[in-house]
Amino acid sequence: MSAPLGGDRLALDITARPQAELEVTTAAATIALRGSTTDPAGYDVQLTADEYASLNWLPQPLISTRGSTLHQTYTVSLAASSRLLLREEQLLGRTAEPPGHLTTRLTVRRAHRLILDQHTTYGTPAPAWDGPAVLSRHRACGQLLVVTPDPHPIEEPLHLGGNPADGYAVLAPLADRGALLTTAIAPTPACLRLLLDTALAHTRRREWKSAST
User: Which helix (H) or strand (E) holds 3?
Assistant: First the structure.
């Protein structure tokens, strides 16, 4: 969708009821644009999964365009027995275009206990966002969060992706052993999606092996 524009306030509130299986996606990318005001736009997503529910949040990428300012938040509330698959992808600028200013915050609680609280900022005036310690030349970034009721067998961070020119990804367990977070950066959205898909396949293989032993 060609929104939000500067000054817009968008909000989604999605709940997977007990024992439900819910997958949510979008038909096309979300494009943050400069509006008639310099006020920042806001896009707030509330995701809730009740007991024994499964919620997949798989939207198309968010594109931050020149001159736009967007503050995006995800607030996730999970029951102890629920499952979550959350994919978040951002493209910083269109072809040969610098990005706008984009801030995102992801807060996840399971059984009312905080398991992840992450904040990122890209584009001017954020310092060093395109420096070698952050994105360098890459302009596509994203993450994949998998939360299950049972602990994952992965105990140490794993590096994914064999060719540095195609981007980097790290799959890491969180302090909550049922949660795995993959963080990736890449030169293009296609390379980014490949890295995140690889991480998801790796996670599912590990889950299958754990269940069969």
Answer: none
Sign of torsion, CA 190 132 169 49? negative
Residue type, 141: C
φ, ψ (nearest 5 deg) of residue 92: -95, 90
For the chain, 213 residues long, the average pLDDT of each consecutive 10-residue run is 82 98 95 89 97 98 95 98 97 93 97 96 92 91 96 89 87 94 96 96 68 47
As a whole number of angstroms, the distance between CA 47 and CA 53 comes to 12
CB-based burial of residue 103 (10 Å sphere; 0-12 exposed, 13-18 middle, 19+ buried)? middle
Nearest to 54 by CA among 88, 27, 80, 19: 19
What pLDDT is attached to residue 212? 46
Asked whether the CA dihedral 24, 189, 96, 71 is positive or negative, the reply is: positive
- State residue 36's pLDDT score: 83
Distance CA 43, CA 194 (A): 26
The amino acid present at 9, given as its one-letter code, is R
> Token pair for residue 154?
């992965």
Q: How many CB atoms lie within 10 A of CB 99?
A: 23
What pLDDT shows up at residue 10? 94
C-alpha span between 85 and 83 (Å, rounded): 7
Q: What is the pLDDT of residue 185?
A: 96
Structure tokens at 145: 């969060």
Whole-number Cα distances in Å, 65 to 46, 170, 176? 24, 27, 36
